[in-house]
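Why run this: before we spend reagent on co-expression, it is cheaper to look at a predicted model of the complex and decide which construct boundaries make sense. The entries below are exactly what would go into the expression plan.
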Amino acid sequence: EIVMTESPATLSASPGERATLSCRASQSVSSNLAWYQQKSGQAPRLLIFGASTRATGIPARFSGSGSGTEFTLTISSLQSEDFAVYYCQQYSKWPYTFGQGTKLEIK
Amino acid sequence: QVQLVQSGAEVKKPGASVKVSCKASGYTFNRYYIHWVRQAPGQGLEWMGLINPSGGVTTYAQKFQGRVTMTRDTSTTTFNMELSSLRSEDTAVYFCARDASGTYYVAYYFDYWGQGTLVTVSS
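The model came back. Tokens follow.
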């Protein structure tokens, strides 16, 4: 199975700052990579699919990049509602696996 | 609007079975596969399998094969996930999630999620 590794485990940042989250796959997943945001007690929300395409209704401050084994989620200017846990997911090969998450917390 | 509304929390003893339901509304039922994903307390997300609403064909993650059964009821637009031989490690929030593709292929990423159902396995 493909192992997805996210880093850092926790990222501390202030509102208005830029945040960069990383996701690495143990083997190539091409561009078959999605990002989700999960707030405490809620279901995940789809942010990005195809490594770089924003889902419907997702603000432009969220952007994704990368292909193969290295991926990045960037939040250009953090808003208070962006502090949450972020997961990457590969959907290249069965079984479809998620990273362990990056917690984005307020500094 | 698309809604996936799940059944309420369950407490089960080891060895028992649990059935979680997910009622779909606000979209064409037969067009979108439904997946089940679980999340153990404080942990990440784990894909369990999917069901094709047209015909009910299923694919399960190898880890759950033999223990999980996913079904759908077209008359009530409801999906069900039953997990048997429960053990403490099955304590988790179980989510149903809609596949993002509404066409003949499966996207395997998820655009709408249910609110989650907490299943606690404890003696």
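The mean pLDDT of chain B is 96. DSSP finds no helices and eleven strands in chain B. Bring this page to Monday's planning discussion.
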